User: What shape does this take?
Amino acid sequence: MAQKESSLKNMVITLLVITGVAGAALGFVYKLTKEPIAKAKLEKQQNAIKEVVPEFDNNPAGEFTEYKSVEGTAIKVFPAKKDGQLVGLAIETISKKGFGGEVKLMVGFTPDGTIINYMVLEHKETPGLGTKMDEWFKTDKKNQSILNKSLDKNNLTVAKDGGEVDAITAATISSRAFLDAVHLAWTTYQANKAVSDSTTTKQVITLEKEKSNESVE
Assistant: This one.
C-alpha cells in the first residue's frame, strides 16, 4: 500500500514538473515571438497603406482614427497627406459574413469616395475560390473591378443581388463579404465624419457668438 502511495506521489510530482516546464517554455516562446509578430503586423499594415493610396509624406499610422461601424466592428481610418493636403484615405475594415469567418481588408479611397485600390489582409475563405478576392475585384474583366468606382454612384453589390459587380465564380458568399467590408469602410467613415463636421461647426458658431458678445460688452 505504501509503495502505491509513493508511486502515485511520484507521478503527481512528475506531472507537475512537466506542466511547469511546459508552461515556462510556452511563456518564453511567447515573449520571444511577441515583438517580431507585432513588428510583422505593423509592416504589413504600412505596406497595405502604401499599396492603396497615392504617394504621401505624412505618417498615416500615427494619425489614424478608430470608429465603430453599425455592427460594432472597429474601423480604422488612416489619412494620407501630401504637403498637408488630404490625398487619400486608407481604411482598415472587417466583414464577419465570410464563408470561413472574418474578411479583413485595407481599402483606399480618394477624399470624395472613389475607390483607388485594396489589399486583402486576412481571411479564411476556401482555397481556390474565395481566396481569389486578392485579385478578382481589381481585374478589369467584365464587371469584376471595383476600382475607380464610388459607393455613392455605383451599386457595388453582386449581380445576383441586383448589383453591378460580378461575384467570384462559385464563391458568392465570399464576394458578398468582401463588398460588405468595402461598404462598411466608407459608410462608417462618412457617418462619423458628418458627426465630427457637425460638432466642429457648432464649436465655431459658439466661438463666434462669444466673440460677438464680448464686442458688445
